[in-house]
Design brief:
Helix content is about 30%, strand content about 30%. With about 375 residues, it is of the alpha+beta class. The chain has 2 domains: about 200 residues, no CATH class; about 80 residues. The strands form 2 sheets. Strands 3, 4, 5, 6, 7, 8, 9, 10, 11, 12 and 13 form an 11-stranded mixed beta sheet that branches. Strands 1-2 form a two-stranded antiparallel sheet.
Length: about 375
């Protein structure tokens, strides 16, 4: 924890443990900038409750019976990144035209610049949760001063910029892939080779900044769920529990796979043998016929039940998977705003493509393949 000279103790917002401030903030961990809190607690709680109401696949009673704990204001350490991003991608593009199919080696190069991309520098905080409450308005960023920490909790960074360089690359790479997807529109079929895709950075500039976040814990059904509200803009997000319907589907699917279900299958396998023995015996009295009819009816019931069991199992598996996908999409962390929000519009964004025809397959009317033809190389740019 970091604090000014007036703070003697505080509470960890993650585990609730009391913490005694034992020493001052050192030069190494002193932030360059800070964005002061702008959203107060009542507004943050209101925004959080409204966000929870938008969750459509939560368990019954979560929105009405969950207990919202006291929200805590917390300055989270962030690295603010400015850099150039460059990406190379290799793929195969195919254009279909009449009886010929032209395949080409496609090499695309993307180059763009981003400004002010935030990456939280705390191990304890979920990265997706912090990305979900972006963006921040950097126009309200001010040079760091201890007085902004009075009455708030804060934490020093425990991940340096070089330690999370892979997070930089992964986030930039997602946007690079979206740019490269514009290349696919030039072809009837385009298959990228992700193993040959490479993204790197240039002109890297990193600033250390404290950003305001309201944290809240929601207790429901014996579990705790964490949520966060942007302390400047009021943007809320979190991860809500999924619907109870999943438990019903999973229970049905699990029961149809239990050892108990082997009993009717075994009995259904034995009954035909008994029916055969009765039919082959010389006893045709009323008791034998009655037993014969009972066994036939029982066999029909068991076979129908077994078929129904497999149908129910399939429906339960498919239903649980479908509901799970919807629940995950509905209740997972909101997506980050995307790098479009952080593009440096004062600098050029380029997407250059170099296509070399790989093979041209021509066919005669009888279906036999003709020889390969030579095609010129193609260059074009997308802005």
């Amino acid at each position: 924890m970091i604090a000014d000279e007036h703070m003697m103790s505080t509470t960890c917002p993650f585990c609730g443990s009391p913490a005694i401030v034992s020493r001052m903030l050192t030069r190494e961990f002193k932030p360059d900038y800070i964005i002061p809190f702008k959203i107060d607690r009542p507004t943050a709680e209101k925004n959080m409750k409204q966000w929870i109401k938008t969750r459509k696949m939560t368990q019954a009673g979560f929105k009405s019976k969950s207990r919202v704990t006291k929200m805590m204001a917390f300055y989270v350490p962030f690295w603010i990144v400015d850099c150039g991003v460059h990406s190379d991608m290799i793929g195969t593009g195919t254009n279909l035209g009449g009886s010929a199919a032209q395949e080409s080696h496609v090499a695309s190069k993307a180059s763009y610049y981003v400004k002010g991309v935030p990456f939280d520098a705390s191990i304890k905080i979920a990265n997706k949760l912090m990305e979900a409450i972006e963006p921040y308005d950097y126009s309200e960023m001010v040079p760091f001063n201890n007085r902004y920490l009075q009455g708030f909790c804060a934490e020093k960074y425990d991940q340096g910029p070089f330690e999370i360089m892979d997070r930089f690359i992964k986030r930039f790479d997602r946007f690079s892939v979206e740019l490269h997807e514009k290349v696919a529109k030039k072809y009837d079929k385009y298959v990228p080779d992700r193993e040959k895709t490479f993204t790197w950075m240039s002109d890297l500039n990193v600033k250390y900044c404290l950003l305001p976040v309201w944290f809240m814990t929601v207790e429901f059904d014996g579990r705790q769920y964490q949520f966060a509200v942007n302390g400047q803009t009021g943007e809320a997000s979190g991860q809500a529990p999924t619907t109870e319907a999943l438990d019903v589907f999973y229970s049905i699917a699990r029961f149809t796979r239990s050892k108990l279900m082997s009993i009717p299958i075994t009995v259904a396998a034995i009954i035909p043998a008994l029916i055969f023995l009765i039919a082959m015996s010389m006893n045709t009295g009323p008791s034998a016929m009655t037993l014969f009819i009972i066994l036939v009816v029982l066999e029909a019931i068991l076979v129908a039940g077994i078929i129904l069991m497999f149908v129910v199992r399939g429906v339960a598996d498919a239903g649980s998977k479908k509901i799970q996908e919807k629940a995950d999409a509905s209740n997972d962390f909101d997506k980050d705003p995307g790098l479009e929000r952080y593009l440096d519009t004062t600098r050029r964004t380029d997407l250059k493509v170099h296509a070399v025809p790989k093979r041209v397959r021509s066919y005669y009317l009888d279906g036999k393949e003709d020889k390969d033809d030579d095609w010129p190389e193609i260059d074009f740019e997308v802005y």
